[in-house]
Amino acid sequence: MQKVIFDTDPGVDDAMALLFLARHPEVDLVGVTTTFGNAPIDITTNNALFLRREFGFSAPIAKGSGDKYQPGRETHPFPTFIHGDDGLGNIGVPDMSGEPLDPRPAHEFLIDMIKAHPGEITIVAVGRMTNLANALRVAPEITRLVKQVVIMGGAVDVPGNVNPAAEANIHGDPEAADAVMVADWPVVLVGLDVTLKTVMTRSELAALAARGGPAVELLDRLSQFYIDFYSGQVEDAMVVHDTCACVYVVAPELFVTRPGAIRVLTTGIGEGKTMQKPDGMRFGPSAWDGLPSQLACMDVKAAELLALVEETLVRQ
To answer: Which residues form a coiled coil (predicted)?
Structure first.
């Protein structure tokens, strides 16, 4: 069993990823930390509490920061046109304020859990990297205690999705993302280079809902708005971005990775761009020198990944 903390901003594709983690037999979901991104922090935290109740898992949920890593940084508009005003496809998520929430802020929860389980915790981060960067700032020693950090984010050799340079999770707090990439812990970047190859159709999701019980029926319902958004890019389907990062944890053999130092541009028209210096490539002196080599996913066995996702989601 792999102990996983899921750092998330639910979010439609976050919901599928969360159900995957909750149902996969090799995953011990020991915590969920919330961040802003697909919606403001109060909404994403409420959504996490709602999904915990509906999906039937018991992991503690800790609320993260609603502000960026660098004080005073303006927050970009929230993508209501993708995830809806409530972050979950405008299904009308109820107020979950009566549900228990861990008293610690997310970054303190991360620090405490990592120190309590040295060498065992995998962080799967699928939103802004703010909580992780805040944890590093307070307790930099945790880099020696984490098993790995798997990130859904970035666009290394392909265009971004918020502009030609940047992917949304990285663009949303680039200073935080850069702090996470250059830290001396093992990072795996599962970005648009691979996630855009993983497409689930509306009919495929409906078929899963018929087999997977109320949790998958809910997932099907909250995904309809999201699928409608994707109609201009893929036909009657959606991309399962965040679930790809979860699949890496249990089936890394489905991915082709490239090692090398990764930096995030934090200013200019390329703000939020993830750039890797592949190991073995020689350049003059640069800001990539002397940094840890991290893994960027460059290709994926998409059909096998989707088959694993479908098999896992219908487990009850």
So the answer is: none
